[in-house]
Amino acid sequence: MHFDDRLATVLRHRATGERAAKTQFRQLLDLLGERPQAGDPALKAAAYLRLIALAEVISVPDRAAIVGENGWRFRNPELVRWFGEAHHSIAGAALYRAQLTDAEWAELIPRLPIRARGFLRHRRDLPAGALRVLDRLGVADRALPMPAASPAAPSEAAPEAQAAATPSVAPGEPEPLVLRPAMLRDDPEPVSEDAKAAPSPPDTEPEPDPEPTQLSPAAPPPAPKPTPSASRTPTPASTAQPDGIRALVERIESFRKARVPASQPAEAPTLPMAELEQAAPRRTLDNFAFGTNAEGRIDWADPQVAPMVVGIDLAHKREKATPEEDFATAFLNRQPLRALPIRLRGAEAIEGDWIVDAAPRFTRGEGRFYGYVGRFRRAIAEVDTRAQRGADRLRQLLHELRTPVNAMQGYAEVIQQQVFGPTPHEYRALAASIAGDSARILAGFDELDRLARLETDALDLEAGESDLCAIVRAQIGQLQTVLGPRVARFEARIADRPAPLPLAPNEAEMLGWRILATLAGATGAGETIGLELAPDGDQIVLRAQLPTKLAGAEDVFASDVRSGGSTLSSGIFGAGFSLRLARAEARAAGGDLVREEERLVLSLPLLTASGSLPSPADAPDRAAG
């Protein structure tokens, strides 16, 4: 009896360096790439978790190159589906290398992401069942169709006839020009020496045909006169290029006609510029300022909305409106308006329900009424509603994902702690690794949930009192010990006096650590990061120089910004996500985190100091006289 323990043997070893990680990555691909067999599901799940851990050490191009190698088998549909959800370069290499049966392809393709299905259009060796599934799903653009052969056009003759008509090239003679895709540009064509020496025919305009006075229905149409360019003797170079261009144009036209819906004829006429892109929709208006004249008509508004609202009469009596909800009633009484509902009709950008806040205006000298001035605001903020719905969906998804991760962590801790009996040390070490990975995943879920709640104003930071200068000074001291082996350091200038913030100490420490740890993780060897923390009016401002790895990013708050392979990090989603979360926390605290050229600037409001001592108990009450 033989036991296949190759997968357990590979998982027993820990990859300590990049080269060892690549070797273990290849070993796991070779073992998991075999056809599915009976085995320990927990061991296979641990193998996939190890692939996720190795992906943090191996870069995306290196992983794509390893997946595209020809030295290993790729017959496991589960592995193909797992790679199909990875980076597009890795997914493309995996789908190009996969060798599955017809039934496996038919079952796998509908479960692949839409982007991954598009990579299969480059495969020419897919079985018939897979091609039928792709056609049913709409992936039918694997190649341009060939143009339909026409016996009347000499350029569309059979390839054998064209080959027979093409003269052979003798040794020593210049070979004819062959059309290639690179020659379809607007660059001038090369002219041979014989063409330069030959005299060009004079460019004479053909005489116009006399207009016929009477045309018989039975008379054949007059034959068109040949143009001077058509009368020239064609050379092999001059005939090859037009034929090649014509064939390419015909193929593109055939492909375009094939994509026309069945309900629309292929030769249906189209309006001019019908194929141009539609104009981008207007951005939804949330509020705008306005002013009316003495008659109640809007005569002024913000420039972006003025053409749509100027001239609207707000003083007319509305049907089914109470006096408290009618603009006309308040207009006649010259009363201020507070949260008055009103419905506007007109352009799409202003159509809908609004809330009006306005006040009457009077002249200084005579006190004559000359209109209202105020602001319209949406009754329901559509942008905030969409953002709230998106945040709710994300939080529901995180709730569903926490359940299996919690289960994996719990089972791993049971094995590692030997709750149900003795367990080999190898399995205990593997279970401890799984428990650690699960804890990191849960921490990442918490960060995603915190960001979604902060950006939708569903979470308020805990109030309290903390000293930002003391917090930053202590955290920089901790980070200097980590940066020392890399000959990197923070060059900090911190104010001597305290900087009290209206935040709890744990909230301020978390905010400071996200920023400083992200900057330290992106710092290269021998790099010095300048940092300055000082009060600025009623705010405390932290200005930090961006490391080279982050300074080159167009948007440092983007989720695809990574700080590199440093062991020091403030989160599992990269530097961009950590800075975005820090910006949301700063805005929730009444400040902001922005990028100013090559610096990152954090501004937070200081805690308001008490103006004076409280009054004595025996002091007279001045309010009472």
Key terms for this structure?
globular, single chain, disordered C terminus, 5-stranded mixed sheet, 5-stranded antiparallel sheet, alpha+beta, 625 residues, 20 helices
Going by helix content, strand content and strand pairing, the class is: alpha+beta
**Approximate shape:** globular
Distance between the termini: 104 Å
| Share of helical residues | 25-40%
The major beta sheet can be summarized as: 5 strands, antiparallel
Contiguous uncertain segments of 5+ residues: 150-242, 262-278, 611-625
* Widest sheet: strand ordering: 2-1-5-4-3
Q: How big is the Rg?
A: 37 Å
Note the total helix count: 20
The strand count comes to 12
Which band does the percent of strand residues land in?
5-15%
Question: Can you give the mean pLDDT?
Answer: 76
Structure description:
The longest helix has 35 residues, at 382-416. The strands form three sheets. The protein has a five-stranded antiparallel β-sheet, covered by helices on one side. A five-stranded mixed β-sheet has the order 7-9-10-12-11. It has a two-stranded antiparallel ribbon with strand order 6-8. The relative contact order is 0.04. The chain contains 20 helices and twelve strands. With 625 residues, the chain is of the alpha+beta class. Helix 2 packs antiparallel against helix 3 and helix 2 (18-32) packs parallel to helix 4 (60-67).
